[in-house]
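Exercise 7.
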Amino acid sequence: MVAILAEACAVRTPGPGAMTIQATPSSPSRDSAAALITAASSTAQAWENGFLIGPGDVLDISVWKDEALARSCVVRPDGVISFPLIGEVRAGGMTVSQLKTDMEQKLATYVPDVVLTVEVKQINSMLIYIIGKVKSPGKFILNADIDVLQALAMAGGLNEFANGNKIKVFRQENDKTTMFPFEYDEVVEGKRLEQNINLKRGDIVVVP
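Solution. The predicted structure, written as tokens, is:
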């Protein structure tokens, strides 16, 4: 589901007004849907202990006072990036600060007193997909704990043709697909609330 880009790393050329996400912790706002999800092409908020780098994420990496060591890197499907001097580095599954520490240790052999900056320029790995009979189907960046009911609200809610009692959530883990049923009417009436599971990256919500 993440597009494979032809070049894993390119010389960093951030556009005007580009936003970045750094290793500094921040708390996502829970007061609005806009603070919870954005379009895949937009920068989303991430926080130090919650966000794990994944395939498709775009990282801006630079060494202080060394323009030759500044790159915008796309995390490959195998979770690896390439960087000058140290070659391939695993980034997938790591926090920003973990990757920064690992790369500084590797670069220390070549760059004395290295000061490295790692920023998440664009999040493409934390996606969920909502398809079917909702008002605004599509893919959304998941950057907080979101349950099925909240996700449906973010997609604009069910449209007039939806069968809310036959909603399904599909989850792919370890080459196995699990399906979770969700009956909208029951949940909004406060019944069988265990159906209202928290979503994970890659989940697909299907509204027939």
